[in-house]
Amino acid sequence: MDKQNRENEALSVIENNSVEGNSSIKNITPITKQLKLKRLSIILLSILIASCAFYIYQLWSYANENERSANFFERSIVASINQYEYLPALLAKDDLVINLLKTPINNHEILSNKLEFTALRSKASDIFLLDNSGKVVATSNFKQEKSFFNKNYAFRPYFKKALTEKKRQFYFAKGVTTGIPGFFISSPVIQAQKVIGVMVVKLYLSEWESSWSESKDNILVADANNIIVLSSDDKWRYQSIGKLTDDKLLEIYTTKQFPNETHLPIYSDTYSYKLGSKEIDFWKIGNANYVVSNFIIEDTNWTFYHLVKHSNFLSRLLMFISLLSLLGLTLYFFLNERTHKLFLKKLARENEKKRHYERQTLIDNIHIGVIVHSKEGVVLSMNEHAQDLLINKTSMLISADENPIQYNINDLLDIDLNIQNIERYIQTDSVSANAYNETTSTIFHTESNISKKIPIIFSIAEVHYAD
User: Fold this and answer.
1) pLDDT, tens digit, 9 for 90 and up, residues 300-334
2) What is the 3-class SS of 278-299, one letter each residue?
3) Per-residue pLDDT for 437 more than 90?
4) pLDDT score recorded for residue 307
5) Between helices 2-91 and 109-122, what is the axis angle to 10°?
6) Would you state the pLDDT for residue 9?
7) Which of 78, 154, 233, 444 is 20–30 Å from 206 (CA)?
């Protein structure tokens, strides 16, 4: 009856443990799914943050690069202007100029020939002299069909400001006579602290635009009125940066700065983005969006604009996101595979632990003595029935309080089991005729001081136990 109870108890423990083990395995699955979702969210968030950082870095690099480009173009423009800025002031001190202004009846051809020669040598487009009423009294193009001679340009700001402010002036306008746009540098002719005329040098800047077109950069230069005076794209010239006020349009019309031109805004929509100390504008021109940076050109009141299509930034951003997504997915699947392998290892360890528990439960409760020992014969474990059969419980309990007794299988059975001969006892076929072996065991009772031998039937099998 006791045997039956113990076996039933063992089976009950095993059954309960199996149910608990299966339950714990089921509980692992939702956690793994949550981990995958969390991991995917982290990777996607990282891609988003990295993509935003890359996009901002592109804009920042663009702004820095454009600042260097702007400095180059600015130096180019300023250097070109500086080649000529001395010329009107130098000519304003010429005796022929002063004499002609003092005595208008004098023949202008002598001075006009000199101005023609000077324009050819200096490569200026035109050089002409205005009296204090604004009329051209001598000009380098006097031999040409569209000569400036006797034309009146009193309405031009480069004349009025030179007359009133008595200093050099810069001005850009479309020629009233020739229709060719040019950059005007004027200097007052002063005699006895009185302005008696204005000397003007006109420069054509088309070669700058040609070089910009060859570089395939979208470049604009706007004057103080925000009118585009230079452009790498012809269709943008004379358009305005933003909408001009009625007063400003009236002023431009009155001074005939750009005859027969309408100054519509170049963009239909715009917004700005502050990036540190730099401000980047976004313009919508037609169906295209542009990223724009601008810089002031010193001494001219002009503004330099550099435009890059926004699609260029987006295409690089798309490539970056694609590469980052590929790396992110690779990392995601690698981590999932690694987690899955760790999960399987953990599951295997838990199953092994469960099987070991089940085996040990059977061993401890079965009505057969079971001993586990090494090949050297060192006893590793014994179930309770084996202890009842082979060992004096009293002496064992006493010794267990301090140091447990280390048994050898040869101490318990009257048989010589060593490494050399143990192999012949190990059974590979559990149903063979010689599956069991016979021997005896010497049992010593401390109470009666009597030892006796009892018959033992044993079988040895090789097992994996505790690694």
Assistant:
1) 778 888 888 888 888 888 999 999 999 988 988 88
2) EEEEEEEECCEEEEEEEEEECC
3) no
4) 86
5) 150
6) 55
7) 154
Q: Determine the straight-line distance between the first and last CA of the chain, rounded to whole angstroms.
A: 36
Q: What is the pLDDT of residue 344?
A: 83
Query: What gap in Å lies between CA 95 and CA 100, rounded to an integer?
Result: 8
Distance (Å, whole) CA 321 – CA 85: 52
Cβ(126)–Cβ(226) below 8 Å: no
Q: What is the 3-state secondary structure (H, E, C) of the chain?
A: CHHHHHHHHHHHHHHHHHHHHHHHHHHHHHHHHHHHHHHHHHHHHHHHHHHHHHHHHHHHHHHHHHHHHHHHHHHHHHHHHHHHHHHHHHHCCCHHHHHHHHCCCCCCHHHHHHHHHHHHHHCCCEEEEEECCCEEEEECCCCCCCCCCCCECCCCHHHHHHHHHCCCEEEEEECCCCCCEEEEEEEEEEECCEEEEEEEEEECCHHHHHHHHHHCCEEEEECCCCEEEEECCHHHCCCECCCCCHHHHHHHHHCCCCCCCCCCECCCEEEEEEECCEEEEEEEECCEEEEEEEEEECCCCEEEEEEEEHHHHHHHHHHHHHHHHHHHHHHHHHHHHHHHHHHHHHHHHHHHHHHHHHHHHHHHHCCCCCEEECCCCEEEEECHHHHHHHCCHHHHHHHHCCCCCCCEHHHHCCCCCCCCCHHHCECCCCCCCCCCEEEEEEEEECCCCEEEEEEEEECECCCCCCC
Task: Tell me the two tokens of residue 401.
Answer: 């309080």
Please provide the average confidence, as pLDDT, over all residues in the chain. Answer: 81
For residue 246, which phi and psi values (nearest 5 degrees)? -60, -40
Q: Token digits for 430? A: 């559990």
